[in-house]
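Listing S7. Sequence submitted for prediction.
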Amino acid sequence: MHNTVPTLTGKVLRTPEARFANLPGFAYTPHYTDIGGLRIAHIDEGPRDAPVVLLMHGEPTWSYLYRKMIPVLVDAGYRVVAPDLVGFGRSDKPVAKADYSYLHHVQWMTAWMLANDLRGITLFCQDWGSLIGLRLAAEQPDRFARVVLANGGLPTGMDDIPGAFKVWRAFSRYSPWFPIGRIVKAGCVNGLGPEEVAAYDAPFPSRSYKMGARLFPGFVPTTPEDPERANNERAWEIFKRWEKPFLTLFSDRDPVTRGGYKAWQKIVPGAQGQPHATTRGAGHFLQEDKGPEIAKAVVAFMQSTPASAGR
């Protein structure tokens, strides 16, 4: 349905590679795919013929978010692929507002996934990584073997919006100051060191690079009139019949997504009887606060559930 690629209307920026030099804990070689005039970056570690774990980041992070999980997954024998969404990380950054939308992000990442021919995927998704990643799984189910959902969801605009999200959306829209590294730090219970804050700032040399990060909160469906309501409702219908293994790993200290796992555990057939867990002492960015612990839970989940589809 969404295999077409958006036509760009404006200028595109590319963060200089020097900005990514000597990042703490992230000495991975980037790979690039050209999609519709954009260069989309990803990390690809582990054996090429091993089962794929697709790590999808959200707002306003990039694949650096997964540096504490990647080694655990690779050591367990898996191939780990972590893309940077368009507008983030090493991926290209359109400048025009008109080039960004929820649908465009789904189209870009669908085209990227198909171009790299990823199959037998275990999806791990959080924040906007889930709004996009769950759509990929619902629209290309034959490519996915399992789903792990953490601090995320698939809103249709029909539910109440948490107050914390309303504050965040207003800040992203109106604040003249948008310090991305500090924003990520504020979403971590354990905080971040100065070098880590700088690593999250690295993709954004100036405010003109931040258009995608600025716009993302406004694309979350929050009203019944949202243009992506119908597509997300169709995705929910797929998950109501989703028999493949589905695990929720939410944290206990995220004011935005707290309790969001309940609907998935109730509705998804493949979620029944799974070892769902609440990660204690972790904030919105649980990959930062409890990365190795989360990765070990993903490994245990994969080892205990057969890859019955997507190969």
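Caption to Listing S7: primary sequence and predicted structure tokens for the chain studied. The mean pLDDT is 95. Strands lie at 12-13, 30-35, 38-45, 52-56, 79-83, 93-94, 121-126, 144-150, 246-251, 277-279.
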